[in-house]
Design brief:
By secondary structure, the chain is α+β, with helices and mostly antiparallel strands. It has three domains: 72 residues, eubacterium ventriosum atcc fold (Sandwich); 78 residues, Alpha-Beta Complex (Type Iii Antifreeze Protein Isoform Hplc 12), CATH 3.90.1210.10; 75 residues, SH3 type barrels (Roll). Helix content is 23%, strand content 32%. The strands form eight sheets. Strands 15-16-18-19-20 form a five-stranded mixed barrel. α5 packs across α6. It is flat and about 65 Å long. The relative contact order is 0.09.
Length: 267
């Protein structure tokens, strides 16, 4: 081969090698599989990958969210994406939608103890769960709808929820104003069936599933008992509401009544 040809070939090979090296350096390390901690907690308000996942390794100190009250509720999809950016692979095998992170256990911490120790002092404040936006009657509380805020101790209602996870997914009984403390009496399970709605009623037993259509005789929230009239036979069916326009009867009804959200997720 002529000298010029060999020189060009060597130059091309060198350029290709440079591109390969650059590509290798630019490629992130292989993802490391991790598992979600059984009970994620943090003690300083900065939620890190190491506090969320077992085996986070060098990514343990990466901050993914902040907690301003006794608990923080994180979107599982966003956490999964943040983990992937740091080279961690979390498959979310349980199909979680939310992750609840609680304040780490320490002496004298927590909203309840703060209320007990400071409520009697003039001008003292306590942290309570409040509404981040105004809700209309019937609105379902989402994770972004509640935040922890400091209020004057004498303005904090007794018995306010101490965990945001306890109110997320519930429905407002009446119009609620942004900034007001969350109270359990103002919330209820969301209505999924209204009186007169057409409802698909499923009978499940031993792997056998039968479906009939009927009309609801009353309003029903998730897990409520509801009588549905079969539109073909006119017979009344005792069922349990498991979703919008959906109910179950038979042996599955007891399981649905005990844990309607989990039952609905498995459907």
């Amino acid at each position: 081969m002529p000298r010029k040809g060999r020189a060009r070939l060597n130059a091309a090979a060198a350029a290709l090698a440079t591109l390969v090296i650059a590509a290798v350096l630019a490629t992130p390390a292989l993802s490391s599989p991790v598992s979600l901690s059984a009970s994620p907690m943090d003690d300083d308000g900065r939620i890190t990958l190491g506090e969320l996942f077992d085996g986070a390794g060098s990514a343990s100190s990466v901050v993914v969210a902040r907690r301003s009250g006794p608990t923080a509720v994180l979107d599982a999809g966003l956490v999964q994406a943040a983990a992937a950016r740091s080279g961690l692979q979390w498959s979310n095998p349980d199909g979680l939608r939310r992750i609840v992170v609680r304040q780490g256990v320490s002496s004298g911490s927590g909203a309840a103890s703060l209320t007990q120790t400071s409520a009697g002092r003039p001008g003292a404040t306590v942290e309570v769960l409040t509404y981040a936006r105004s809700l209309a009657s019937g609105d379902v509380v989402q994770p972004e709808d509640v935040v922890w805020a400091e209020v004057q101790a004498h303005q904090a209602p007794a018995g306010t929820p101490q965990d945001a996870a306890d109110v997320i997914g519930l429905s407002a009984r009446r119009a609620l104003r942004a900034g007001t403390p969350v109270q359990s009496r103002d919330l209820t399970a969301p209505e999924v069936i209204a009186r007169g709605d057409m409802v698909q009623v499923v009978y499940i037993s031993g792997g056998v599933s039968l479906t009939v259509t009927g009309r609801a005789t009353r309003d029903a929230a998730l897990g409520d008992a509801v009588i549905v009239t079969n539109i073909e036979s006119g017979r009344a069916i005792d069922a349990v509401a498991v979703g919008p326009g959906q109910a179950v009867t038979g042996p599955a009804a007891q399981a649905a009544r005990a844990n309607p959200q989990q039952f609905a997720a498995l459907r």
